[in-house]
Amino acid sequence: MGRYNLRMAASLQLLNVKAVKPFHTVSWRRSTPPLRCSVAPPPSTSHRSYTITLLPGDGIGPEVVSVAKDVLTLAGSLEGIKYDFKEMLIGGAALDTAGVPLPDETLSVAKESDAVLLGAIGGYKWDQNEKRLKPETGLLQLRQGLTVFANLRPATVFPQLVDASPLKKEIVEGVDIMVVRELTGGIYFGFPRGYGVNQHGERIGYNTEVYSALEVDRIAEVAFKIAQKRGGKLCSVDKANVLEASMFWRKRVLEKAKEYPDVELSHMYVDNASMQLIRYPKQFDTIVTNNIFGDILSDEASMITGSIGMLPSASLGNSGPGLFEPIHGSAPDIAGQDKANPCATVLSAAMLLRYGLGEDKAAERIDKAVEDTLNRGFRTADIYSTGTNQKLVGCKQLGEEILKSVESNVLAGAV
Ligand SMILES: NC(=O)c1ccc[n+]([C@@H]2O[C@H](COP(=O)([O-])OP(=O)(O)OC[C@H]3O[C@@H](n4cnc5c(N)ncnc54)[C@H](O)[C@@H]3O)[C@@H](O)[C@H]2O)c1
């Protein structure tokens, strides 16, 4: 299992999720009480069956979800797992068919399932729609509907892809950051919001950055526990020199820190954090931040790793199914051209197995298969380096190679 997965596994174990084994530098000084969640109890050895809601969405979403579904099915079947896949509409696809970005049926099926795998939403076609009819609104409604407040976004440099990073090798080698982003509060959801007229009679648009104590406390708790199981360092990113909501955030994080004396807490303003991520990313272990800063910083961190096409994410709440999705969007510029990198979605499927269903072995089969495929030199364009003996392939072929790796790992007895 790769370093990234060890880290993720270790991190999420504190969330009452089964981890495979702890990362070697992790300190297990004390056990933490389970925090959540939607994760099923450890699977029995008999045949297991799960309902998975698939939300392919728009753009490259259907292409990458199709690959992930095949990989999930094969890796699962090797572990005696059966799935009942429910494919539902979301985003632009739902707008075109049902007139809303998140049909009620999609949300109720998702809530009833064991886990949700999403591709991506959005596209030029719907960009000019009014807010309530934007694909992005459907995704925000889904996250709210599933009450997944903690978004875990790892940014880990795969050793095979060090050269794909736009940054110098010595800067990116060994980068392993976990961004813990608050997902259901802040300016994306705050009121008042809207359009109006200011005191000078000028038309304005406005939003509200607002956090309650409960919202900050619970995300800080997740982040401290994750940091505790990783390198023991947590950096809280805010804009407390300007924003009251950030001053409040910092105060609550400092309060929560008293419960975690073994975690080294630091604070950084978001503008500095965005600079430091490029200057010296290895200084970061775990980052906790609000919804909008997390949105931006995790995308920035993803570029350090080489491609947004490699990074999965998990969104977890206190109960109910988790939401697993690549961090990239619908990539309309390459949609329908078989150019998308499916790895982020395939790795999201592995996270779904591990953290959503407690099916560590099947998850490990997928993680190993992705690494094996990279080791065999197969690359989509976003991670391809010219002048090497790498093999440039499309989304479908990379998916087929991952499936071959799942199978060959069985023959080699690697899992
Ligand atoms: N979670 C989501 O569904 C989500 C997230 C971000 C953006 N979006 C939506 O996606 C649309 C496009 O947004 P954007 O261009 O800002 O972000 P994007 O992530 O879709 O694309 C950014 C760049 O990365 C490339 N890229 C993304 N995923 C890739 C993959 N798997 N393989 C290879 N290259 C990949 C794209 O081709 C593009 O050049 C917008 O409508 C936006 O609202 C959706």
Q: How would you describe this protein?
A:
This is 3-isopropylmalate dehydrogenase. InterPro entries: IsoCit/isopropylmalate_DH_CS, IsoPropMal-DH-like_dom, Isopropylmalate_DH. Pathway: Amino-acid biosynthesis; L-leucine biosynthesis; L-leucine from 3-methyl-2-oxobutanoate: step 3/4. This protein is of the alpha/beta class and 415 residues long. It is built from 13 helices and 14 strands. The protein has helices at residues 3-13, 61-77, 91-98, 104-112, 135-145, 169-172, 213-229, 244-257, 270-279, 291-304, 343-356, 360-375, 395-411, and strands spanning 48-57, 81-87, 115-120, 150-156, 176-182, 194-197, 203-206, 233-238, 264-269, 286-289, 312-316, 322-326, 378-379, 391-392. Strands 2-1-3-12-11-4-5-10-8-9 form a 10-stranded mixed β-sheet, with helices on both faces. Strands 6-7 form a two-stranded antiparallel ribbon. A two-stranded parallel sheet has the order 13-14. Helix 3 (91-98) crosses helix 5 (135-145), helix 7 crosses helix 8 and helix 11 (343-356) packs antiparallel against helix 12 (360-375). It is globular, with a radius of gyration of 21 Å. The N and C termini lie close together (10 Å). The model is unreliable at 1-41 (pLDDT under 50). The structure holds nicotinamide-adenine-dinucleotide. Nicotinamide-adenine-dinucleotide binds at residues 60, 64, 120-123, 136, 139, 308-309, 325, 328-334, 340-341, 344, 382.
